[in-house]
Amino acid sequence: MGFVVLIVLMTTLVHYYLWRRLVRATTAPGPLRRALTLATVALGALIPVTLVGSHSDWRRFLAWPGFLWLAVMYYLAVFLVVLEVPRAVALAVLRRRAPARTAPVLVGAPEPPGEEPSGEEPSGEEPKGVAMNRRDFVARTAAAVAGAGALVTVGTGVRTALGDPLIERVSVALPGLDPRLGGLRLAVVSDIHLGPLTGLGHAERIVRMINGLQADVVAVVGDLVDGTVAELGPLARPLRSLESRYGAYFVTGNHEYYTANGPDEWVEELRDLGVRPLRNERVEIAHAGAVLDLAGVDDVTGTAGGGGPDFERTFGGRDPGRSTVLLAHQPVQAVQAAKYGVDLQLSGHTHGGQMVPFNLIVPFQQPMVSGLGEVDGTQVYVTRGAGFWGPPVRVGAPPEITLLELRPGG
Question: Which of 6, 17, 63, 367 has a 20 to 30 Å separation from 70 between CA atoms?
Fold first, then answer.
């Protein structure tokens, strides 16, 4: 209930701002303004309805218009905020250059013959037929720029989000890695987000691209789905065809806990599809006569239900001489992982920000946004994910599948 109230409040505030800049500032009182005001109210109501109804029987009808408008709304607000300073400067310059008292410009109203402009500004409202005064001109120009910018940005972002993920090839040096494990390759994918805006082809394409990498290990690092097995089971079936030398592994993300039936049914479904869940446990990857510990912990979201990550269970009694790679959905889990001497953590969750400038907000919750870095001495690789959540839009953060190669390093 609190989530719904927050969404309604934020949506109301943003749409009020959009109304002031795109409707009130650009139109005169009358039928056009009333119609645009009603449209703004309707579009504002569409956002919470879409978010609340995304798991209902109406999700297919709501998802595309609702989430696309969410993206357009977001970028309209971004462009308008960016334009606030140029807008204020333009108004100041126009006021300074204009005569102290200037008659408004009339469109379609020729000057009476023989009369010179009086140079006096009439009191009260502008007469009917006035096209634009200085404030109108600046407001409408800003609205046009923001509208064009938002539409172009969202259109480009849709093409990126629905296109092929990029293959990121990353080499990671692990101090103490047994040289015989050098060259071990892990295909890392996260945030596939099977849901109302994705079809069977989304999963098939990801599986095909992973198989083309010929990896030794496949790691699916959470947020596979946005619905139940009954709703989305057929979309996940291509995962049965994942190919790798030592198997495919999965850890839960926060969205597995948001489904109506919780994560357990997906854990069993994936097991049936040949993808092994790692729920606060580790397995041995034997390669070229050496052994790597591959571990996985549940997402922190499970803590609210009495579950969540259990690092003691996962790493208790392990051989400290072995290198360890941990699958954990959220980068913030590396803070705890570092206490157990984890060499490398593979995470997702952030989507790389998904839509710039949202990437500037992610660091307030997570220690990393994307790429390879370090948290308390543990190396962390954060993939941008292969899918999207909410709007089918990615701006500045293209979808990604990572081929990560381990090598010994000092």
Answer: 367
Strands 378-382 and 400-409: what pairing?
A: unpaired
CA dist 231 and 59 (Å) reads 11
Residue in the structure block whose two tokens are 């119609």: 35
Beta bridge partners of 187: 218, 403
SS3 track for the chain: CHHHHHHHHHHHHHHHHHHHHHHHCCCCCCHHHHHHHHHHHHHHHHHHHHHHHHHCCCHHHHHHHHHHHHHHHHHHHHHHHHCHHHHHHHHHHHHHHCCCCCCCEECCCCCCCCCCCCCCCCCCCCCCCEEECHHHHHHHHHHHHHHHHHHHHHHHHHHHHHCCCEEEEEEEEEECCCHHHCCCEEEEECCCCECCCCCHHHHHHHHHHHHCCCCCEEEEECCCECCCHHHHHHHHHHHHHCCCCCCEEEECCHHHHHCCCCCHHHHHHHHHCCEEECCCEEEEEEECCEEEEEEECCCHHHHHHCCCCCHHHHHCCCCCCCCEEEECCCHHHHHHHHHHCCCEEEECCCHHHCECCHHHCHHHCCCCCCEEEEECCEEEEECCCCCCCCCCCCECCCCEEEEEEEEEEC
* CA separation for the pair 52, 408 (Å, rounded): 49
Give pLDDT tens digits for 262-299. 999 999 999 999 999 999 999 999 999 999 999 999 99
pLDDT band for position 5 (cuts 50, 70, 90): confident
Beta bridge pairs of residue 172? 406
The contacts of residue 162 (CB under 8 Å, 6+ apart) are 392
**CA neighbor of 173 nearest in space, from 395, 397, 379:** 379
Question: What is the pairing mode between strands 217-221 and 248-251?
Answer: parallel
Q: What percent of the chain has pLDDT over 90?
A: 80
Give the amino acid at 354: Q
Length of the chain: 410
